[in-house]
Amino acid sequence: MKLSLNIEADSINVLALNKGRIAIDMDGIELSQLVDAVNSNGCTLRIADEPGTVSVESPVPFRTRLSGLCCSTAHITREDNSLLYALSHEDPEYGNAEWIHYTGSGYLIRLDAWTFPILRLKRLGLSGACRRLLLILMRRYQLGIIHLDAFGELLPDFAIFDW
C-alpha cells in the first residue's frame, strides 16, 4: 500500500523493518491531524495495541483499486486526437477500444491493460510528445488510468498544442 501525506512536524524518525515495513516517530504534530489525513485518503488509521501490528488498513483490497490522473487534451496533437478517436471506435473483438475509451470530451486510457502500453501506442502511431507525457506521468505517479479531457487541467513542464 502506498500512502502520501503532507503534515508539518518538528522532527521525523524513520526505522526500516522487515518485509518493506517502516516505523515512523513524528514529534510536533497533533494525533487528530494525522488520523484525519490518513482517513481522507481512503484508509483507516488505528493506534496499534502492541508494536508490530498493522495500524493502517484499507477497506478495499489492493488489486481492486486504480490510480489515475486527469489532464487536458491540449497536451496531445490534433493527429493524436484523430488516432485515439479511431482506436476508441474499433469494432473487432479484442481491439483497441477495450483499453482506449472515448468519453465524449476526451479519452480514458487504461495503461495497465498492456505490459508495455507506451510501446503499443508507439506502434499504433501516437506522437512522441503524447507518449512522453504518458510515460512521465506513469513513472511519476504509478498510474493505471489516464483521462485526457478537454476540460482537464494543463500540467506544467509539458508541451501544449493549440488545435
List the helices and strands and how they pair.
Blueprint lengths: L10 E6 L5 E6 L3 H9 L4 E2 L10 E2 L10 E5 L5 H11 L11 E3 L3 E5 L6 H8 L3 H14 L3 E5 L14
Parallel strand pairs: 5-8
Antiparallel strand pairs: 1-2, 3-4, 6-7, 7-8
Task: Characterise the protein shown here.
The structure is a single chain. The chain is an alpha+beta fold and 163 residues long. The protein has 4 helices and 8 strands. The strands form 3 sheets. A 4-stranded mixed sheet has the order 5-8-7-6, covered by helices on one side. A two-stranded antiparallel ribbon has the order 1-2. Strand 1 and strand 2 form a beta hairpin. The radius of gyration is 20 Å and the shape is elongated. The two termini are 40 Å apart. The model has no long low-confidence stretch (mean pLDDT 81).
Which features does this protein show?
4-stranded mixed beta sheet; two-stranded antiparallel ribbon; 21% strand
